[in-house]
């Protein structure tokens, strides 16, 4: 099972939004996907509870105690587990990075998000330092290229971390992401084709990098 963590200890960067949409898109590609809600806040559970009964969505499983993450994941039967990580939860973030094969660090194009992402970067580097393998990339959410700072962040020039790239695919600031979340659905169920393409592009980029291979 491939374990993909959607992470950043800063609140509100878009982790749950990206996790629910990636999980749904991969599920509809025919993969066995489980969305792991590792956040006591329960956003992914609330999302799934709001879904129409007949919606074609992946199951959501709550594992919100860091001491139980590894053992609970070992009992999950799926091709891909997407972990929706919590904000401000150091022990859980560490457990998630330990378990994950791939980490997507979600940032909005702001200095605050980049500073806050240093905590996730440290965990990734610490795992590698002891011989652990993990693929990692930043993914920009709510990208809008109007200011100099956001342009610099979107084009990746700020990123000099070795071994943590930035995905070329970005997610725009689109109301359809908020609407899909509120409806317990994904942007695949909505009419905004750009939002769907953005999600598919992230998957394509991960496929090309062979990050989704078993
Ligand atoms: N690309 C986007 N376009 C528009 N709104 C967005 C986008 N991404 C996230 N949002 C909105 O921003 C808010 C925070 O998003 P989300 O819950 O996904 O963040 P989070 O990182 O999971 O937060 P937390 O740290 O609290 O778990 C939500 O209201 C969501 O609808
Ligand atoms: Mg969340």
Helices, strands, pairings?
Blueprint: E1 2-7, H1 15-28, E2 33-37, H2 43-49, E3 60-62, H3 69-74, E4 80-84, H4 90-99, E5 102-107, H5 111-129, E6 135-140, H6 148-154, E7 165-166, H7 175-182, H8 193-208
Parallel strand pairs: 1-4, 1-5, 2-3, 2-4, 5-6, 6-7
Bound molecules: adenosine-5'-triphosphate and magnesium ion.
What does this structure look like?
This protein is an alpha/beta fold and 214 residues long. The protein has a single domain, classed as Rossmann fold (3-Layer(aba) Sandwich). It has a 7-stranded parallel beta sheet with strand order 3-2-4-1-5-6-7, sandwiched between helices. Helix 1 packs across helix 8 and helix 4 crosses helix 5. The longest helix has 19 residues. The chain is globular, with a radius of gyration of 16 Å. The model has no long low-confidence stretch (mean pLDDT 96).
Pick out its properties.
single chain, 214 residues, alpha/beta, Rossmann fold, 41% helix, globular, binds adenosine-5'-triphosphate
Short structural description:
The chain is of the alpha/beta class and 214 residues long. The chain contains 8 helices and 7 strands, in the order βαβαβαβαβαβαβαα.
Order of helices and strands: EHEHEHEHEHEHEHH
- Mean pLDDT level: 96
Counted up, domains total: 1
If classified by CATH, what would the architecture be? 3-Layer(aba) Sandwich
If you consult CATH, what is the topology?
Rossmann fold
Residue share in helix: 40-55%
What top-tier CATH class fits best?
Alpha Beta
- Please compute the radius of gyration using only Cα atoms: 16 Å
Coarse morphology: globular
Physical arrangement of strands within the biggest beta sheet = 3-2-4-1-5-6-7
Coarse structural class: alpha/beta
Tell me the distance between the termini.
6 Å
Weakly predicted, low-confidence segments: none
Q: Work out the number of β strands.
A: 7
Biggest sheet descriptor = 7 strands, parallel
């Amino acid at each position: 099972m491939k374990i993909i963590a959607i992470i950043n200890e800063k609140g509100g960067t878009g982790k749950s939004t990206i996790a629910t949409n990636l999980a749904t898109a991969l599920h509809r590609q025919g993969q066995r996907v489980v969305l792991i809600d590792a956040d006591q806040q329960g956003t992914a559970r609330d999302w799934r509870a709001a879904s129409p009964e007949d919606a074609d969505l992946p199951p959501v499983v709550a594992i919100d105690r860091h001491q139980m993450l590894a053992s609970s994941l070992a009992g999950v039967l799926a091709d891909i587990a997407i972990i929706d990580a919590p904000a401000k939860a150091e022990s859980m973030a560490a457990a998630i990075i330990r378990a994950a094969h791939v980490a997507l660090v979600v940032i909005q194009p702001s200095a605050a998000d980049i500073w806050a992402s240093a905590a996730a970067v440290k965990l990734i580097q610490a795992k590698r330092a002891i011989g652990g393998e993990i693929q990692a990339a930043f993914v920009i959410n709510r990208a809008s290229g109007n200011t100099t700072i956001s342009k610099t962040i979107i084009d990746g020039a700020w990123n000099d971390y070795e071994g943590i790239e930035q995905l070329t695919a970005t997610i725009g600031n689109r109301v359809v992401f908020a609407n899909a979340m509120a409806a317990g659905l994904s942007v695949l169920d909505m009419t905004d084709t750009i939002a769907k393409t953005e999600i598919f592009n992230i998957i394509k980029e991960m496929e090309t990098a062979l990050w989704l291979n078993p």
